Amino acid sequence: MANQSPNGIPSTNNQFNSITRQAKTEPFDLQVARGQIYGHSVLNIYGYQTAVGTSFVPVWEGNTSYTFPSSAIQMHLVSSVNTGADITSLITINGLDANYNQISETIKLNGTTAVTTVKSYFRINSMTVTSGAPTGNITLKDTSDTTLYAEIAAGNGRTLMGIYTVPAGYTFYLSRIDINTSLNANPAGFATYQNYQTNSAGVSSVTVVAPFTNNYHTQRVMPRLVSEKTDIQLQAKVSTGTAALTVSQEGYLISNGS
């Protein structure tokens, strides 16, 4: 039985209908975002840093060059605060195992006492707060607590790291890049962005280098292919001093069997 909702949206048995449910068409992007295309998903890579300097580094919380694990390892998760939600909140870690397969787990914080991951990670792609509202900086390091692999800055709720590794069995198709800085179109100061990639054979390449002042935007007509097991680093530097910089990269993660 079909009827009409007060705002004019068609419904069946009091269930609102989308265009897809009505057997019409929707834009392909929307179908992917809704999980309606088998083997396809939207991938957004975000990075933010308040003080990018004059040397190329990935845009992430660490504000240094990034060291990937040389083998799959267990890691330590810890907060900088030892009270309240920083003892009870849950953190979800998303990464890859030794074979570049996707793995994840959810861990309860224990304040400033490190909690060891159950799984061993070869790559870390993101961390997210999935319950609670921790107030400290949450870091993920090796079990000797010397190398930082990911961080959720206080109040952000997730990592903002311009670093991502394409899982085994998938290809990433890059469609859009946006970068913004705190620079104010000063001719004496500008930023430069580069997309730095390394494949599983250890071969590195820079796919784009772009100087800009306030912001940089590119919308690719044909998405750029990034193969499985490729490390992506969205890197930036400024010509003088330091500047805040945010970068976002959007595209499709598609199963190679699709």
Provide the descriptors you would attach to this structure in a database record.
four-stranded antiparallel β-sheet, 2 helices, Jelly Rolls, 19 strands, 258 residues, mainly beta, globular, five-stranded antiparallel β-sheet, disordered N terminus
Layout of SSEs?
Blueprint: E1 2-4, E2 10-12, E3 15-16, H1 28-33, E4 40-52, E5 57-58, E6 75-79, H2 85-88, E7 90-96, E8 102-108, E9 115-116, E10 123-131, E11 138-142, E12 148-152, E13 163-165, E14 170-181, E15 191-198, E16 204-212, E17 215-226, E18 231-238, E19 243-255
Antiparallel strand pairs: 1-2, 2-3, 4-19, 5-18, 6-9, 6-11, 7-8, 7-10, 11-12, 13-18, 14-17, 14-19, 15-16, 15-18
Report what the structure shows.
There is one protein chain. Strands 5, 13, 15, 16 and 18 form a 5-stranded antiparallel β-sheet that branches. A 4-stranded antiparallel β-sheet has the order 4-19-14-17. It has a 4-stranded antiparallel β-sheet with strand order 9-6-11-12, with no helix packed on it. The chain starts with a strand and ends with a strand. A hairpin with a 2-residue loop joins β2 and β3. The protein is built from 2 helices and 19 strands. It is globular. It is mainly beta. The chain folds into 2 domains: 113 residues, Jelly Rolls, CATH 2.60.120; 85 residues, no CATH class.
